[in-house]
Amino acid sequence: MKQRLIFLGLALGGLTLNVNAQQCDLSITGSVPEGISLDKLVVSTYGKELPVTSRDYSLCASKQDLQVVGRHSPNNTIYLMDKSGVIPRGVYTAEVFVQSKAITLDPASSLTKQACDLRCGYYASQRVQNSKELQQLAAEYQRLSATDGKAISAFLSQNQAKLDRIYYGDIHPKPSAPINTGDLWVDPYSGAGLYFDAPETILNSTFRDYVSSEARAARQQDEAVAEAMKQHKASLQSLMKGFNSWQERVEAVNRLSAELKANQDPAAIKVAQIFERGLEEAEAALKSYLTNDNKTPIASLTRADKTFELLLADWTNAAYIHSKDKQAFAALFSEQFKQQLPIQNRELDKALSRLIDLPNHLGKLSIEDGYQNIQLEFNKVLPDSNQRYDFKDALHSVRFVYEKGAWRLDSVSQLPIRHYDKG
């Protein structure tokens, strides 16, 4: 009976461990090198210090402990930290990403951070760390005394050029043409929806422009029309003012048009027809804006045979450069995407803003560098296609479709910046 109780206790204990493991957002493992005492040794995260009590350790950190922001290169680092001396000493480091599930703090993780130099997202970091060249350097680093700071600094200095080459590996990213970013700035956090023309703005501005131009010409060409406009001046002017919605304007135009046509006066009918055609012109202008017929303003996006990483670099570059040109900017999006205009979903607006800012973000404020770094980051993450790309991970999702002669963004989503606040 006693043996059964012991077995039951072990089973329940195992169950508890499994439950705890499921709550572990990041598993952190490692081995404490010789010469480093366990006294006051911790793994330091953004918001917490986790005590290390054995030379081979395995710890858990929650996303609240880590506070990794929802960006591709979040600049979030964890450390194996020796706090036994007057000045805390970092033993090993590692960068943490939203996609990270398990990290080993060791020479390889430290060298990967050094090679990346804030240019890596999750995928480039993994590529660098798993490379044969970095693993060879890590083996050399391992042989150094963990307490000999001068030797470690000298080793890193001597091998910095090699670490830079490891970042690129055997990839030869396409360079960007020079870009003058003097008057360009994209808010990386929100506001991308403002780079589109709002449908109601297109409708109302087109209506006003058409009616104003046509009415002026009609008055000059036909005295009877001029007289009819004078007789109905107040009513006609009311149609040119603001309305709460486009539908209200349409209904007001239809009511007055019916009144003008009721007495069968040819001049009044001509006036009514100007306003009716104004509605038609406005709706045609909106339809043209929302469709992609004969719209391929960005030459780099017209080639169907394009890798995902080059497409992402070309598209984000184009979106950044053309963020102030609403016609060219709109042509970067699929017809399905533009059915959502105006963008009222705040999370969509924020996700699109961060996508457009990606070259600036991964290039450390250099669009040209970012163009290449995007290609390095997403190298071969998807098989090649000439019709559609769907990418999704723990941080973001993006879909591109080849539509009417060009690649266009069909959907995008991304975790909120402070996603860890939501538990």
Based on the model shown, name its key terms.
single chain, 423 residues, alpha+beta, 4 domains, 4-stranded antiparallel beta sheet, 3-stranded mixed beta sheet, 18 helices, disordered N terminus, signal
How is this fold's topology laid out?
Layout: H1 2-22, E1 26-31, E2 41-44, E3 49-51, E4 56-61, H2 63-66, E5 77-82, E6 89-95, E7 102-105, H3 107-116, H4 122-130, H5 132-142, H6 149-158, H7 160-168, H8 199-221, H9 223-231, H10 233-239, H11 246-262, H12 266-290, H13 308-321, H14 326-330, H15 335-338, H16 346-356, H17 358-362, H18 367-377, E8 388-392, E9 396-403, E10 406-414
Parallel strand pairs: 1-7
Antiparallel strand pairs: 1-4, 2-3, 2-5, 5-6, 8-9, 9-10
Summarize the structure.
This protein is of the alpha+beta class and 423 residues long. The protein contains 18 helices and ten strands. The chain has a four-stranded antiparallel sheet with strand order 3-2-5-6. It has a three-stranded mixed sheet with strand order 4-1-7.
